[in-house]
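Input record (Table S2, row 331):
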Amino acid sequence: MALEDNYGRIHRDLRISLTDHCNLRCTYCMPAEGVPWLPRQSLLSPEELMRIVRIGLNEGITEVRLTGGEPLLRPDVVEIVARIAALRRPDGSHPEVSITTNGIGLSKIAPALKDAGLTRVNISLDTLDAERFHRLTRRNRLADVIAGIDAAIAANLRPIKINAVPMREVNLDEVGALLDWCLARGLELRFIEQMPLDAGKIWDRRTMVTQAEMIELLSRDHELTPIQDRGAAPAERFLVDGGPGVVGIIASVTAPFCGACDRLRLTADGQLRSCLFARGESDLRGPLREGASDEELAQVFHTCLAGKLPGHGINEPGFLQPDRPMSAIGG
Ligand code: SAM
Ligand code: SF4
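Output record (iron/sulfur cluster complex):
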């Protein structure tokens, strides 16, 4: 049975948070002191994770993205990639397995991830200035991130996308330099509108940088031509100066793409979420540990989708930020 919700959206993309821990403290994501971490015993074991993924594939998932927190902090991340990549869908094909990471530690394991079957990688990089990076992430790790990106290129983990959150008085003066840096390396840069998902609740609609502003800024130095075939992809993509370079903008706040959403999210403690902004969750861990059958666990996927709303509601009066921060949901 397809993973269809009440609005006809078919879900094929499962985003799994491998951990809520992180070695950075990006201001738009976490406060300096971090967040109350999930209890260790609540985290899914690799076996529990595999069972849930296998059931998801049977129900229609075709793509699995590993995220967090920082997924590379899981010592068993290569094993998890290999085990998911080896699973099969009902038609016999393997799922696509990708990862979203801050890049720290990637320099050591990029070739192993490639061999394990990783098909794509997104790496977050908001600035090329070491001092600024330190201020923004509260850690002095820019060199490690760049080494990780270089290793991903060397291991041919392509396509490699770079994620950046533009922020006023933080890195907005640098968006052109970031784009040039990515273009020179054949990397696709995607700017993400800052969303109200941070644990410290610093998001402010009045100061956030919008997609319209980004297009205006980037167009000062480059000709941007919209690419039409967007599908379920969140980014609106543009050819830069006629191509082949591409830049994307993910306008979750000012131009939501909820109507084409095909994503489900699994938290590190085994809760299924139909949306980043959902206020409810469907518990998979409890039934799994109490001996539920595959059919019963598959039903949790469908129950979760039955509660999926048509949109995230950020722009509606009365919008409430979810209790879980982005780092504990899996961005
Ligand atoms: N730690 C990994 C990383 O930074 O790539 C994976 C998890 S992180 C939550 C996933 C993505 O979410 C990153 O690209 C990050 O920049 C983005 N992100 C985090 N908080 C955000 C926010 N409040 N608004 C928009 N994007 C955010
Ligand atoms: Fe960590 Fe990623 Fe959040 Fe930054 S955005 S604090 S790297 S989880």
